[in-house]
């Protein structure tokens, strides 16, 4: 795994097309957000989102993965792969199926998410806010 950070605090991870990349992304997100004082439950929500996005890139796009993370009151996760063709949309699955819930989980823990397609691949992104902001803090 290659990791870099710029002056704005954005972190970029370059991960191979391997199952262990999911764990590496989770660990990097946890370290970054804990260092910035995020609550444990909020860190876990961001970890869940990045886990699902990286797993999808590895399993469905069969691609190396670039993860970009920026934190500015909320965390924006961008997971890029090299397959512009792979379909990215939540599925309806039967309760007995083991997979197929990843993007639904991302949607549930994120304020917003989406896909940006390019000729050399795609980026699936989401934004996760701390719970106090996500659930309508009074004011």
Structure description:
The protein is of the alpha+beta class and about 140 residues long. It has one domain: Histidine kinase-like ATPase, C-terminal domain (Heat Shock Protein 90), CATH 3.30.565. Helices cover about 35% and strands about 25% of the residues. It has 4 helices and 6 strands; from the N terminus they run E-E-H-H-E-E-H-E-E-H. A 6-stranded antiparallel β-sheet has the order 1-2-3-4-6-5. Helix 1 packs antiparallel against helix 2 and helix 2 packs antiparallel against helix 3. The C terminus is likely disordered.
Task: Offer a few descriptive terms.
6-stranded antiparallel sheet, Heat Shock Protein 90, 139 residues, disordered C terminus, alpha+beta
Topology of this structure?
Layout: E1 2-5, E2 11-15, H1 20-35, H2 40-60, E3 65-71, E4 75-81, H3 102-109, E5 112-118, E6 121-128, H4 131-134
Antiparallel strand pairs: 1-2, 2-3, 3-4, 4-6, 5-6
Helix pairs in contact: 1-2, 2-3
Brief characterization of the structure:
The protein is an alpha+beta fold.
What is the global morphology? globular
Portion in helices: 25-40%
Per CATH, the architecture is: 2-Layer Sandwich
Question: CATH H level: which superfamily?
Answer: Histidine kinase-like ATPase, C-terminal domain
Q: How far do the termini sit from each other?
A: 42 Å
Strand order of the largest sheet: 1-2-3-4-6-5
H/E element sequence? EEHHEEHEEH
Number of beta strands: 6
CATH T-level topology: Heat Shock Protein 90
Structural class, from helix and strand content? alpha+beta
Percent of residues in β-strands: 25-35%
- In oligomeric terms, what are we looking at? single chain
| Annotation field: number of helices | 4
Low-confidence runs (pLDDT<50, min 5 residues)? 134-139
CATH class: Alpha Beta
Mean pLDDT: 84
